[in-house]
Amino acid sequence: MKLTHWLKILLFTVAVNPAAHALDLIEALTLAEQNDAQIDAAYSAYLSILEQQNQSSAALYPEIFVDVFARDSTIDKKYTGSTTILQDSKNSYKTKGYSLKLNQPLYNQELFDLVAQSDALALQSLAAYETAKQNLITRTAAAYFQVLGAIDNLEFATAEKKANAKLLEQNQERFNVGLIAITDVKETQATYDTSVAQEIVAINTLSNNREALWVIINAPAENLSSLHEKIPLLSPDPDDIKQWQDKAIKNNMELRATKYAVEAAKSKYDSSNAGHYPTLSLNASYGFSDADNSPFGDTFGGSKSTDSVIGVNLNMPIYRGGFTSSKTRQSLSELDQAKAVHEQQRRVTIQQTRIAYLTIKASILQVKALKQALISTESALEATQAGYEVGTRTSVDVLITQGNLFRSERDYAKSRYDYILNLLEIKRAAGSLSAADVQQINQWLVN
Fold it and tell me: Which pLDDT value is given to residue 12?
């Protein structure tokens, strides 16, 4: 009871004070795995294909049917003609019985190829599901950092608005005592009005980005863990673009799915072509019937009979109006299409991997450069403001330098998020992205 009581207090505290716990990336991914509709749809599609595989395999096993029957029969005979010696008669009897039938394919190349096709489709669906799981990681991370980026942008927009408001107030005071012209006040007013509008846009963007994350995790995204000021800038490991390319060709899940699609199309083509082949099957049946008072029994006393049959049936297709040949040509075209899609995906995979590798290398340099640019713009603003105080710089100079500073802050913050997403992207392209990679990045967040 005491534990439950304290648990209720803790839950109430978190509810009334969201800042008590910030949602980190691992927790967001866990929620996404539990609630994302896209991953649920991909998993259901995979299970559906597995059932199709079971259905195809079932055609190779024996079919057994049982038929149980009970019938009432009436034979009513009437004779015409005045000289006949036969008398009209009416006889009713009951018949009951059962029959068992078995059919076992011995050779059916079309069925064998359809089973091979279903096996390839199952592997294709599994690869598609693995692709969806990796895409879930990148989608969740992208949505998460888009919220953090929107929070940063709102902070920068608010800070810029406050700075412009302060400068507008100073210019108004200077104009009142005749130190500056009215044009300086108007220019500052225009810049301030623009910053007000930018803050409104930033607020709306943050709300939209939170809604986008909510769609994935189905939970509020009001309080997220922020990124540490200092994060490691890691080069791809191994630091060799050719090795990453080879790894992607071998393991990329989307490419693997198209490979299995080619195998499925090949099996379908073989199955269509097998329509020209003979089929061989084993057939067996056993039947029993019991007819009471049947006129066909001994002295109308009824009859009992059994019937047993076993045999092998060979079916040789001769001509089906060109259907088999047309179906084979269609399957061949579909096979060519699957091969083309596979080749296109191979090229796209190589492109995505190489771009991700080169982007990470560039991102590292960009983060460092933008960090230095931020330091420089901060120093430039301090110097400009000092010059403004002594009259060597105008308010326009201050506005320009302030704008450069806030732009540098936005660019630097965005470059760090882009760098992290590129780290995930190269792993996704190489087919090795997992929760362990998210765990590493999660350590870079302020918990």
Answer: 38
**Which token pair is 225?**
């863990």
pTM equals: 0.83
The pair phi, psi for residue 279, each rounded to 5°, is: -125, 150
Question: CA–CA separation, 441 vs 261, rounded Å?
Answer: 34
| DSSP calls for 406-446 | HHHHHHHHHHHHHHHHHHHHHHHHTT---HHHHHHHHTTB-
Enter the tokens of residue 72: 């009432």
Instruction: Count how many Cα atoms sit within 13 Å of the Cα of residue 321 in the half-sphere of its side chain.
Output: 1
The region, left, alpha or beta by phi > 0 then psi within -120 to 50, assigned to residue 81 is left
Tokens (6 digits) for 229? 């000021």
CA 34 to chain CA centroid, nearest Å:
13
**Nearest CA-CA partner of 417 in 342, 349, 377, 366:** 366
Domain range enclosing 253? 21-60+109-277+323-442
| Model confidence pLDDT, tens digit, residues 76-118 | 777 666 555 666 667 777 889 999 999 999 999 999 999 999 9
By the 10 Å C-beta count (0-12 exposed, 13-18 middle, 19+ buried), 179 is classed as: exposed
Instruction: Mark out the alpha helices in 66-181 (DSSP H runs).
Output: 109-176
Shared domain check, 144 and 188: yes
| CATH number of the domain encompassing residue 351 | 1.20.1600.10
Nearest one of 122, 125, 121 to 43, comparing CA atoms: 125
Output DSSP code: residue 113. H
